[in-house]
Hints:
Blueprint: H1 2-16, H2 32-38, E1 43-54, E2 57-73, E3 78-79, E4 88-101, E5 104-115, E6 122-131, E7 134-142, E8 146-152, E9 159-164, E10 168-169, H3 170-179, E11 187-192, H4 195-201, E12 208-216, E13 221-227, E14 232-238, E15 246-253, E16 256-271
Parallel strand pairs: 10-11
Antiparallel strand pairs: 1-2, 1-16, 2-3, 2-4, 4-5, 5-6, 6-7, 7-8, 8-9, 11-12, 12-13, 13-14, 14-15, 15-16
Amino acid sequence: xxxxxxxxxxxxxxxxxxxxxxxxSTSIELTESFKNYWFDGxxxxxxxxxxxxxxxxxxxxxxxxxxxxxxxLPNVQVKxxxxxxxxxxxxxxxxxxxxxxxxxxxxxxxxxxxxxEQTKPLVKTTTSIQEWCGQAYLQLNRRGRLEVKSHSYFxxxxxxxxxxxxxxxxxxxxxxxxxxxxxxxxGDFEILPSLEYLQLKHKPIKLYNVKTKFDxxxxxxxxxxxxxxxxxxxxxxxxxxxxxxxxxWEETDLKNPDQITxxxxxxxxxxxxxxxxxxxxxxxxxxxxxx
Length: 291
C-alpha cells in the first residue's frame, strides 16, 4: 500500500509540474468557459503604463498585450488564411512597447504563437526593435529543437543562425499564464530568456539557468523568474481566476536594483481590432489610455 501511495504522489507531481527539460508535450482538454472567452471572434487588448529602464534611467511609455486565437499552419509556421484540416489553433500574443530615450523613440514588438491544449505550447516567436540608430529582428521556431535567426545592425551581431536543444522559453510563459497557470514550471532549469532582453542588453543568445517560484495569494498570483548569470529578475502578476489577466510586471537588474522596469494595467477591452481601421476608429484608443 505504501508503494502504491508513493507511485500515486509521483504521478500527481509529474502531472501538475511538467519537467521543463522533457521533450514530451501532454494534451490538455479545453473547458467550455475557456472556449466561450477565447473563441468569441474578438481579441483581448490590455494597455499598461510603462516605466522602462534604459541607459540607466526610467523612461515613460506604454505597453500593450494583445491576445487572440487564430488558425495556424504548423509546417510553415505562419497564420493561415482560413481554417482547414491542415491548421492548428494557436493563442497569439502581440506585445508592444513604446517609449522615448531623449530625442529618439523606441518601438519594440514581440509575437508569440502557442498551441492550445499542450503543456509545452510554444511554436514560434518574433521580436523586432526599432530606434533611430537602427533595428534588429529575431525569430525563433520550435521544430523538435529551438532554432533562432538574429539580424542586428551591431557589429558581432549582424546575422546569426543558432540551434539549441529543446527547452522552455521565457516568451511562452506569457501565454502559458493565460491558459494553464497551474502547470507553470517551478524550480531550477535551463531556459531561453526573452530575445528582446538579450538584444537590448547585448547578451549572448543561449540557454541560461533560471530559478522560478509561484506566489499564490487571495487576489493575486505572481510568477517569479530569477537569472543568476544575468543578474535579472522578472515578476509577472496576474489574476487568480480565469482568464488569468496579466495585471503588470516588474523586471529588475539585481546588481542595480534602482534600475527597474514596471508595467501596470490601465484597462482591458475585447474588440475585433482588425476591423477598426477607418477614420474615426481612433476613438477606441481612448478607453485604453493610448491617445
